[in-house]
User: What shape does this take?
Amino acid sequence: MMDEIILDLDKVCGNNIYSRADGKILYENIENALQSYSKVIVQFNDKEIASESFLDEAIVEHYFRQTSNDVKNRIVLRNVTKPDQILL
Assistant: This one.
């Protein structure tokens, strides 16, 4: 297993950061990366999302669907705005 990968929100989602369907794209990118990397870093670039649906589908669902307890240590969120930190 390789060490880490950085998923850049702008590259993965562009401006599609609002709906549950948009979040599913990021979710699947994270899911695929978890198969090969010990750490998945999601770079938010201080881009405010302010969409509970997107964040729930893209990030929070990993914590409910994963069978291993270490997923919280394996997904790293960087440069998340304060309002989005509160939503998460």
Observations:
- The beta strands are 2-8, 37-43, 75-78.
- The helical segments are 9-13, 20-36, 52-65, 71-74, 82-87.
